[in-house]
Design brief:
The protein is an all-alpha fold and 152 residues long.
């Protein structure tokens, strides 16, 4: 993968750095990754209420507060971890670009991936749906038939 060098000012803001990386990813044809970065930027901007900051202000307290804010907005651990991993990646790029020194602000937030509970429908439930009398409602009867066709 070709590396694209970006020119940064000494006190580049976090939001601006995010936007530059999103542009770079789009230009490299990595649209899905760019979309994930954009989603993370929007979330972080909401947390910050639109108030930008410099990388020197990204501290363990800030990342912990952001994680708490995400959890208070009813996001699961895997989703909060998704945002934290992207934030950490951008922070590490900023360190590499000499925009800040590494203060290890992500050391106290969760960045792993939890195993999720299986949510697949059981064979017993499929049999109950198949045997349900829906003759009173042709729309439901049709929807059930379409659902069952997806298993054939």
């Amino acid at each position: 993968m070709a590396t694209i060098k970006l020119k940064f000012r000494n006190k580049e803001s976090v939001f601006s750095f995010f936007r530059q990386n999103i542009t770079m990813l789009n230009e490299a044809g990595r649209h899905s990754t760019a979309d994930r970065y954009h989603q993370t930027l929007n979330s972080f901007m909401s947390f910050r209420e639109g108030c930008d900051l410099h990388f020197d202000n990204v501290t363990p307290q800030l990342t912990l507060a952001y994680e708490t804010w995400l959890r208070n907005n009813h996001l699961c651990r895997n989703t909060t971890s998704f945002y934290m991993r992207i934030m950490r990646t951008l922070y590490n790029r900023a360190v590499k670009a000499s925009l800040t020194i590494d203060r290890h602000p992500f050391s106290h937030v969760y960045t792993g991936i939890d195993k999720t509970a299986k949510r697949a429908i059981t064979l017993h439930d499929i049999k109950r749906i198949k045997e349900a009398d829906l003759s009173h409602d042709t729309t439901l009867d049709f929807a059930r038939d379409m659902f069952l066709l997806s298993f054939s």
